[in-house]
Write a structure and sequence with these properties.
heterodimer, A: 617 residues, alpha/beta, Glutaredoxin, Rossmann fold, Ubiquitin-like (UB roll), 5-stranded mixed sheet, 18 strands, globular, B: 162 residues, 2 domains, 4-stranded mixed sheet
């Protein structure tokens, strides 16, 4: 087989034929399954069979609206596709009767519609114009929620492996130049120019070269790589194959977190089918180019996201980083030149080769080109996945896409870049997001997790949370990281417990700077960022904890006091029964009071009170 | 192969599986971690004699095998429950009250972080992130993910695995 035209045409026919029938698609990414998607699928299938309807069932991955899971898409021939949110088995009958049989969508359950060539329904937001999607560009995520990731025909029908075919007709150096022209930078966090990295590996001398995909997405609050792995596994493989051809490698490894079983399953399926169809293996599409790949499941170590640690882990060693240089581009896996990129970076490659470097470079800012997938989580209304052009402001993401703060509370900070990043306050909301602006503000892009915090989040506690994480995950090889993060954590814990002294602030700052400048790898060098940014933007909170022994957010339990609001308390006595210390007293149907001397600050009363009458401050 | 004196068939089945595994990976570069992962799937954890056998067969010093085992969070040297409950305490889950759910799980099962119930049914663990942040707080029981948890969901979820 020398080209994929025939296969593609056939796939397109099958793909279009699927769309010509009444069709029900359920989002079954990890998030969809977690929200109960499989149960909804079972209920749909059962009721369709009972009613004897002719309906095509399909699955898809995460469309990005985690807040609306479980998501079900329904279309009838000749009409727009409607995506419903929050569909539990009890809503299934209504959907089938109204939309499939009656051809009338259930507007109150619909989230968005995708008209395609059909006339849009009235009263349902069109996807591109809906608040959640209007400011997004869907390139890397274009197949997510739209195709069946377990079916290669869907991939071929949507332009899949066109990039590979085009690349195989190009000179390898021209591919590297095209990537350079696109301005693509490493999406794993560091932001190193991808084209330059490829050039180093291409120029490196060696009889054998490797391609490694870093799918060890460990940042808490980040799941974009998981979504792409589960939703578009072929795109990552295609990107890796293009890279391999460009740099002269014939073997690839995907290092995937073991915590992502579904991603590993879908990758394995994708590799198997690509090999069977001759898209991967020996003499690919008659070009003489050979490539094979395998998956290596991680074993649970955050530091393995660091490139040299990851390489050690593939070689069966403890995942500890080593001193660079030599860089992996010259001495990587099995001491051979190795090109190591992140999932999202590879997933961008087929699009760049297909549409050209100039197309990609037309999006974004001067130094950060293209789009970036962010994970929006924390105390916002619309949690999910969003692909936006570089240069968009935090305010647009938090308020326009994510729909603002839950429960109408006040925005306090957004944490960007996971444990290596920082917390940015209200004053930074209009910051255009790119690699350099975020570093200037003390945070970093990281892999793209944005955790939004509201007024009830304590910033000292957040800093302590991250240091607890990095301290546990520090591999222990270098002293600044091993000892330094431990000392930072001790000081922060002391402050949260109300035992801090004012000198602690200067110690935190000094220690943080020392760790940043002396740690061996990226983990240690960025570990103090959460402390340093919270000190920079929220110093008053540290001072309140230390000087006034007060937690302004009412979060740190040791500093909290519980009290009952007399105007809200109806005297139901639920809290009296819940209190293990017997600290609450009062007459039935009259406001109760808490004895602060007896209170052990467990918070059991707050959970029991149905009237929000007990406050923690 | 030596036969086992206790007469239990299960033991020798596991040994056969381990031997097959070792034979499969004998000439494989970087075999140690996949072998440990699969051996753990066979035994549920990594007993010392299994580690010794792996070291011997792969010709890797026992100290190195032990070093790799203790480095990665995934490997366990003690028996574990049939169901592994992994509570996510990542940033998004932390901000949305994951700690409360974790406490409720601990209270319900009567174990602390890393502990296993005496009937070897449940092991409770905290993990840094399972990547379902959009549905925070969330947990995994073996490979099933449960999201948008409240304290009152805990008993219902555990009951599914009785």
């Amino acid at each position: 087989m020398n080209n994929l035209n025939e296969l593609r045409e056939e796939s397109l026919k099958k793909y279009n034929a699927k769309l010509d029938k009444a069709r029900i698609v359920v989002g079954l990414g990890t998030c969809g399954i977690a929200a109960g998607g499989q149960k909804v699928m079972d209920a749909l299938k059962k009721q369709v069979a009972e009613r004897g309807l002719d309906v095509e069932f399909d699955i898809t991955s995460c469309i990005g609206m985690c807040y609306a899971e479980p998501v079900v898409e329904i279309s009838v021939p000749g009409a727009a596709s409607v995506i419903y949110g929050g569909i539990y088995p009890d809503k299934v009958a209504q959907l089938l009767e109204s939309h499939v049989i009656g051809k009338t969508p259930v507007k109150e359950l619909a989230v968005i519609q995708i008209p395609g060539n059909a006339t849009p329904y009235e009263g349902i937001d069109i996807m591109d114009k809906a608040a959640y999607y209007e400011k997004q560009v869907r390139s890397v995520t274009s197949r997510l929620g739209r195709t069946n990731p377990e079916n290669i025909e869907d991939y071929l029908a949507t332009g899949g492996y066109e990039g590979l075919e085009k690349a195989l007709s190009m000179e390898p150096q021209d591919i590297v130049d095209e990537i350079k022209k696109s301005g693509l930078r490493g999406r794993g966090g560091g932001g190193f120019p991808t084209g330059m990295k490829w050039q180093f590996v291409r120029n490196a001398v060696g009889d054998k070269k490797y391609i490694v995909c870093n799918a060890d997405e460990g940042d808490p609050g980040a799941f974009m790589d998981r979504s792409v792995l589960e939703g578009d596994p072929h795109a990552i493989m295609e990107g890796m194959m293009i890279a391999a051809y460009a740099i002269g490698a014939d073997e690839g490894v995907i290092y995937c977190r073991a915590e992502y079983p579904l991603a590993i399953k879908r990758l394995n399926m994708a590799i198997e089918v690509a090999e069977k169809m001759g898209i991967m293996g020996k003499n690919i599409l008659g070009s003489g180019f050979n490539f094979k790949m395998r998956i290596k499941a991680g074993a649970g170590a955050f530091v393995c996201g660091e490139e040299t640690a990851l390489i050690n882990s593939i070689m069966g060693l403890r995942g500890m980083p080593r001193v660079r240089p030599p860089f992996p581009a010259n001495e990587g896996l099995w001491n051979k030149p190795t090109c190591l990129n992140n999932v999202e970076t590879f997933a961008n490659v087929p699009f760049i080769i297909r549409k050209g470097g100039d197309w990609y470079a037309s999006m974004g800012t001067e130094k950060s080109k293209g789009s970036k997938v962010f994970c929006l989580t924390g105390k916002i209304n619309n949690t999910g996945l969003a692909e936006v052009p570089m240069g968009i402001t935090l305010r647009e993401i938090v308020y326009d896409i994510a729909g603002g703060i839950q429960g109408g509370k006040a925005f306090k900070a957004v944490q960007s870049g996971g444990p290596s990043g920082g917390c940015l306050p209200t004053s930074q909301l209009d910051l255009p997001i790119d690699y350099d602006s975020l570093i200037g503000a003390g945070a970093m892009m990281g892999s793209g997790g944005l955790v939004v915090m509201d007024e009830t989040t304590c910033m000292v506690d957040v800093a302590r949370f991250f240091l607890n994480f990095t301290q546990l995950e520090s591999c222990g090889k270098c002293t600044p990281c091993r000892e330094g993060t431990k000392r930072l954590l001790e000081i922060l814990t002391r402050i949260c417990n109300g035992e801090g002294v004012i000198e602690d602030i200067a110690t935190l700052e000094r220690l943080g700077k020392v760790i940043k400048s002396s740690a061996l790898c990226g983990l240690g060098q960025t570990a103090p960022n959460p402390v340093l940014t919270t000190l920079r933007y929220f110093r008053d909170e540290y001072e309140a904890h230390i000087l006034e022994k007060r937690c302004p957010a009412g979060c740190c339990t040791a500093l909290a006091t519980f009290s009952i609001l007399p105007e809200k308390c109806i005297g139901c006595t639920a809290c009296v029964k819940a209190c293990p210390a017997g600290a609450i007293s009062g007459e039935v149907k009259k406001p109760h009071v808490i004895d602060r001397d007896k209170c052990i600050k467990c918070g059991a009363c707050v959970d029991k009170c149905k009237f929000n009458a007990i406050i923690k401050a | 192969m030596t036969t086992c004196n206790c007469g239990s068939k299960e033991v020798s089945e596991k040994e056969v599986a381990l031997q097959e595994l070792l034979d499969h990976y004998r000439d494989y570069q970087g075999a140690l971690i996949p072998v440990l992962q699969e051996a753990q799937n066979i035994y549920g954890y990594l007993p010392t004699d299994v580690l010794e056998k792996i070291a011997q067969e792969l010709r890797i010093p026992f100290s190195k095998v032990f070093g790799v085992c203790t480095f990665y969070a995934q490997f366990h040297l003690k028996p574990r429950g049939k169901y592994i409950v992994r509570m996510c305490l990542g940033t998004a889950c932390h901000v949305r009250g994951g700690a409360k759910i974790f406490k409720a799980l601990g209270d319900q099962l009567g174990v602390s972080d890393g502990g296993t119930t005496p009937d070897l049914k449940f092991t409770l663990e905290s993990v840094a992130c399972i990547g379902a942040c959009g549905l925070a707080p969330c947990l995994m029981v073996n490979d099933d993910t449960h999201g948008r948890l409240t304290v009152s969901d805990v008993a219902k979820i555990l009951a599914q695995y009785e």
